[in-house]
Amino acid sequence: MTQLLWNGLFVGSFYALVALGYTMVYGIIRLLNFAHGDLYMLGAFVGFGVLSVAGGLATGLGFVALLIVMLIAMLVTGTAGLLLERVAYRPLRGAPRLSVLITAVGASFALEYGMRLVAGPNPEVYPVRLAGDPVNLLGARITIQQASLIVIAVLLMAGLQWLVMGTETGRAMRAISQDPTAALYMGINVDAVIARTFFIGSALAGAAGVMAGGYYGKIDFLMGFVIGLKAFTAAVIGGIGNVKGAMLGGLTLGLLESIGTHWIGGQWRDVFAFTFLIIFLTLRPTGILGERVTERV
Amino acid sequence: MTTNLATSPARARALFDRLQQNRHLGLVGLAVALLAPFITATNYALSVMTSALLFVMLAVGLNIVVGYCGLLDLGYAAFFAIGAYVSGILATRYGWPLLATVPVVIVAAVVAGIVIGGPTLRLRSDYLAIVTLGFGEIIRITANNLTITGGPSGIYGIPGIMLLGVDLSGPVGLYYTCVVVVALAVLGAARLGRSRLGRAWRFIREDEDAAEAMGINTYRVKLAAYIGGAIWGGLAGILFGAQLSAISPPSFTFLWSALILMAVVLGGMGSTPGVVLGAIFISVLPELLREAADYRYFVFGILLIIVMIFRRQGLWPARAVERQSRRDKRRAEEHAARKGKEVVP
Question: Which compartments is it annotated to reside in (chain A) (predicted)?
């Protein structure tokens, strides 16, 4: 049972990291960035590329190498998110919702199949695995590396929380999410702040991608599709647009999945999660922490 | 001479516009579909053309949801799968003739539409997009895991269509069956789009709040669009099973839903001729560009972004102006005549 909880927390922290980007972008410009899961995939592949090039050096350093790789991957995916916003989303700001959603689907498609062109259709095996000696902790077997990944995830989330609540950029973000026009009148550079949001959200997804590569050991160009959906589910469970909610939702979903699949079988894992999304939207669409948002006309 | 040069592009454009609005366009399309096998009727060509027809039907069905009502459905392949699986299971496991499964498929599609659309259509329209995406996965994974759906290997040995003792399961018979069914489907969807309900759909697409203020029950009208799309998808699924005689979960991935959406968006959301041509284009293009298979989806993705940024209405836009129906015109005339009489004395 403790093992299940640990696994749930572990997977949940991935979900939370990806969900954070989703929820930040949604919170600020009300855009469902379908390509977000694919930025996670991009992060995993960038990490894979760097590790393959660095080769022997990386395997020697093990965990530290993974950290450096993670930083590089975060930079690359962050920049990719920035580009995506600039090229695909900014020209459509103020366009009908449907057009923006379709653009996001197009962006997701382009990223997936662009990566397929680069890396080929077959799954790649991650060169660094997090398979150290397991330690017994409260009746569960976990490795030090796994535990440290959770710590990193928590640190990243704490950093983000500080950024959103404690810095000027964060205040600008919150202002834009309340009223972009008024924020503009108050002298906030709206475009720059939105771009920054995309960078941060995408970088977090990239970090999660590298972690997932190290944890599962296998990556492929469609890996972002399901995780994107799960992250959205997590964001909805926590209350979309709410940073703390995304973390809570991610962990909740991870735990639910871990316990649920134990009962009904691993092949039903995704069905279980998405059914949960539908149930949640029916019963409490604002999520655990979300407050009721009135639609502005 | 100079004026001629200046006006000829404008005249060409006007001519093209008139051509686009022509009422007999549908008949021309039907004639092309009926006569195509006389040009080439190899089994390969027939199967490509049948697939294109199925794709047209799917695109026209999705057009009800996306084009008319402005709701993004990213799991449209799920309804297609429901149609194919329900009819396939009834036909192979219980020996029903394929035609007898039609009502059951319609009921199944409507139920699925209500289950998914019911809770989500009350929320912001973006939620529908992602929930349908999840729904597509649920259906595919479920089909992959259950024994009644044959698991990963799917269902095989689905019989062809028999109508009044005539066997329509050969390539030619199937093709013409599809021509008839798809023509009716296109016509039906187009007429639905021009009906009172269709006007409500477009009103919601343009401005949901204004529509609500005008007394349209937006929730019910949106649900009607979603269910309409579901029925079209389910019926196309039956034909799909009849064409391939075998179905399996990989046929119903997100890729399908995305390609159907692509056809609708490229052709022109809400425009029947645009969507039909878009569907033919998307389904036949891969046959022509076999070598470029790897680049195809990448290019499709980029194309979606470009179309949305530079030509949102698609390549063949829908008519912006409502045409008065003959009945309305007659009524208006009668009304004017009556008024005239009252005024005269």
Answer: Cell membrane
